[in-house]
Amino acid sequence: MAEKPTYEELEKRIEQLEKSLKSLRKKESEHSESEKKYYSIIQSLPLGMHIYQIDPYGKLRFIEANPAAEKILKVDHKPYMGKIIYDAFPEISKTEIPERFLSIAEKGGFWKKENIIYKDELIDGVFENYNFQNMPGQMVSLFIDISDRKLAEAKLRENEARLKEAQHIAQIGSWELCLQTNKLFWSEEIYHIFEMDPSKFEGSYEAFVNAIHPDDRAMVDKAYTESITNKMPYVIDHRLLMKDGRVKFVQERCETTYDNDGSPVSSIGTVQDISSRKALEQKAQQWQQVFDKAEFGLALVDIADRTFVDVNNAFAHCRGYSPEELRGQPFLEIYPPKEREKIQKQLGSIDASGHELFESVHQRKDGSRFPVLVETTTIKDEKGRPVSRVGFSVDITEQKKSEEKLRKSEARLRRFYESGLLGVIYWNMDGEITSANERFLEMTGYNREELETGQIDWVHMTPPEFRHLDEKAIIELKTKGVNKKSFEKEYIRKDGSRISIELAGAMLDEKRFDGVAFVLDISERKLVEMELIQAATQWQTTFDASNDAIWILDEAHHILRTNKKAGRLFQIPNEGLGSKNCCQIIHGSEIQIPECPLLRSKVSLKRESLVLPLGEKWFAATVDPILDENGQYAGAVHTLSDITEHRNMEAQLHQSQKMDSIGRLAGGVAHDFNNMLSIINGYSDIALERLNPSDPLYEDIHEIKDAGRRSADLTRQLLGFARKQIVKPEIVDLNIPINQSVKMIQRLVSEDVTIELIQAPDIWLVNIDSSQLDQILVNLAVNSRDAIDGVGNIIIETANITLDADYCSEHLGFSEGQFVTLTFTDTGRGMDKETQQKMFEPFFTTKDEGKGTGLGLSTLYGIVKQNNGFINVYSELDQGTAFKIYLPRVDEVEEKPESNPVDVQSLTGSETILVVEDEKQILRLCQRILEINGYKVITADKPGEAIVLCEKFPGEIHFLITDVVMPSMNGKELHERIKRIKPNIKALYMSGYTANVIAHRGVLTEGVRFIQKPFSPKALVQKVREILDATKERTHD
Question: Which domain CATH number covers 568?
């Protein structure tokens, strides 16, 4: 028998029992607390939770749900409790879910299912499920409603589809270039246009330029650079070179955005295939999925110390931790510093609200960060005090990326819609425009209010003559969904004006017949096309209007194009000239002549020319080379200009210049000759006055004087030709002096020659010296007399005529204006061309030697030119000759009263006379003549010497006789200088020919006294006496 325990042993065992009981009670308490804690977590979860259990019959029954499940599904779960899953949720039997749930409850495991669509009489939604076994025979299904996310995804896909479809319809691709990163975004349509693989495109500005036709790259780069610099959008057409050698033409439009500092940020634009206008054949590349797998985690945080109480694997692994590493750590450690501060400030409001849903950023163990969606719910104890917080978080990195892509896509679509590149409208089959962008409103002149009130109708905006195009496009839309090709038409703007547009459309809703259309303003293009047509027409008109024959030749010198003048010149229709070699047309052979300008131009690559005789005409053949883009010879422009008239006028000019040169020579000769004749004739007169007529020397000296007189007549004719005669023109009616000269002319010609006058009754007046008119008539009469053999006729005709520019352009030296013509026609033997070319030259004559001076027609020529007139001569052998003289018309002026001639009683005098002459022999002759007649004479052979003599001479010098042309100073200047010393001195000018200092074209300046060399002693002293006596009479008056 066992011994009884001692008291001490019993006391010790009781103490051990108490300890064991106390430990057991503690464990029971802890177990109860744990159950309470996790029950609170389950009840506070933001996810919906259903718990299912296998009954004894192997059926899966719904046994429990948390409040979040009722909130998500919006139904009371109590009626479903204890029901078999098929009875609780009838529509679920149509899916794999019951079998999956039963398998998890029996065997365990984890099953995640996305995109579960469930709908019955009470529940309707799209859900994402997370399912696992919580104990044998029992499973938990956690779920969230993702209906809103699915709607967002659908919206994104719709927007992307609309953008893709819109660009496909209009055959327009859009692009965007970030100028900070040089990253270039191309829409899929651009890849189709460029026929490039997106995976092989670098996505930079340089890659874009390299895709352009090599010859257009510099142009496009320049346009883009200038657009950024000038802050102006641009539109440019350029080419693309395809891999197979095909060339596409595209139209590119671009706009650039700038920041507040004016720096360029990005460029957006469009590229439209304008070569084929065909729909692209490839479908758009699949856009990246908006969302991938949704990942979330669960965490329990102690409110008191803000540490993690517990986390699940998804939460920990997502952040690079194990659950053990996070338990007990401050929950704020998973937030980056800045986000941590933000959450710290919000803790108070989060605790007070009991529930919060917000986005934030979490930081992984390796320091990387990712965005999360966090939903938290506060867990309270039995007294209602917050003790912890359960949080649900999902990594929304992919969602954020999708949202960013969506934002950019929508922004690009919005920028495209709002840009001024194209008009965009949404329409229906009733003709209504339901929506439009600002560009369309701007194009048509309507405002947004008129659009929203339904006042814009695309049917009535279309002129009647274009509506059949709309009907054809609508039929195509109904059958094919899109307009495969755009078409051109016009809209009637609000103000009634019209605008040219290019349009393409697509159906958006085939059931409702709604669609979208892109409208491009092509008014400027139409204007350019019209200008090009007009320019081509004007060019062809100008080409054909040219008075030159013009050929455009290819490299082998075959005629590609010709104008009408060339056809007329060679009497070949223009179509008959095509493809022929120009040498065959001009020279009758394809063999080019050695000096051919075509051959020379092909070598020199410069303009070459040659003068060619073709028949009776002369042509200037000019060749300008046509060079290709590489500077190589590719053809030529061959011009044939008729220069026959030009050569004739050139010959006339040479003849006129020759006559002027001969005239200047004749004047100079006459001047020197007159100086010598003055000496010969002067001393002859002095000798004859002193000799007795019976003296044997008298006759000898008289012969000398006669020879001098004849020589003086000859010099006067030379001066007439040289237009250096001193004349006194007067305004006359030509008919009067001609009538007075008829008898004289009749005496000059034989009686067998009949003179006929044909005179205009209202003849205009002319200004001419009557003696010169007599010279003209006498010279012409003598010329006609010598040309007429036997019986003949002379016709003297006067008429008024006005010369215009056309006539003067064909007659060198003629000028426009009103003239009186004197035509002298005879029926003589006429002249050949060689004689006509020389007839006005001095000393040229067709008479036998010794029978003519050859100065008659030369004098006639000089007189006409001196009077600002012209001469035309018409003559042919055996057909007679007509001289037609043109004298300028003058207006009638008031006649000046003639001064009374001074009665010279005596040629002698006693006055003091200063004679200045650089020819010393003439100086001595003048001194001798004047001294013989009683005058006191002072002489000087230089103007400077004469001035000094006047300054030193103490008495009065009454008279100055000076030569006109002298070295260092002319006679008029000398007179002006001496008048400063002797104010009352008078002057007489003498010269062998006139000079501009005292006369203009031989007409003396008003008040100038002049004596022509050679002069007789009597003529000199008579002129001196006349001037001195006239001065005395004015003094007495």
Answer: 3.30.450.20
Within a domain: residue 283? no
Residue 829 shares a structural domain with residue 972: no
Give the best-scoring range by mean pLDDT among 127-136, 388-397, 651-660, 856-865: 127-136
Q: Which residues contact 733 (CB under 8 A, 6 or more apart)?
A: 763, 765
Could you tell me the CA-to-CA distances from 316 to 142, 334, 365, 378 in Å, in that order? Answer: 19, 10, 10, 21
- Assigned domain for 114 exists: yes
10 Å CB burial of residue 968 (0-12, 13-18, 19+) is exposed
pLDDT in tens, 287-314: 222 222 335 678 888 888 889 888 887 7
- The set of residues, in sequence order, having a beta carbon less than 8 Å from that of 154 and lying 6+ positions away, is none
1021/990 same-domain check = yes
Q: Are 338 and 481 in the same domain?
A: no
Q: CA–CA separation, 459 vs 442, rounded Å?
A: 18
Q: State pLDDT tens for residues 588-623.
A: 666 677 778 878 888 888 888 887 777 777 878 888
Final residue of a domain: which of 402, 437, 454?
402
Question: What pLDDT was estimated at residue 820?
Answer: 93
Neighbours of 1003 (CB within 10 A): 17
Residue type, 38: Y
- pLDDT average, residue stretch 388-413: 76
CA distance 887 to 292: 108
The more confident residue out of 858 and 824 is 824
Which residue, among 513, 322, 297, has the nearest Cα to 392 in the 3D structure? 297
Which domain-ending residue is among 831, 853, 888? Answer: 888
Q: Are residues 158 and 267 in the same domain?
A: yes
Query: What is the number of H-type helices and E-type strands within the chain?
Result: 31, 39
pLDDT at position 397 is 81
Full domain range(s) for residue 157: 151-273
Judge if 737 and 881 occupy the same domain. yes
Give the Cα separation of 379 and 386 in Å (integer): 6
* Whether residue 135 is found in the same domain as residue 175: no
Number of domains making up the chain: 7
Which residues are within 8 A (CB) of 205 and not within 5 positions of it... i.e. 6 or more apart?
Answer: 177, 182, 184
Is residue 634 included in any domain, yes or no? Answer: yes
CA distance 883 to 869: 13
Query: What H or E segment, with its residue span, contains residue 311?
Result: strand 308-311
Q: Is residue 394 part of a domain?
A: yes
3-state SS, residue 71: helix
Co-location of 876 and 772 in the same domain: yes
Is residue 360 within 8 Å of 335, Cβ to Cβ?
Answer: yes
Contact 1018, 907 (CB under 8 A): yes
215, 180: one domain:
yes
Asked whether 663 and 655 are in contact (CB, 8 A), the reply is no
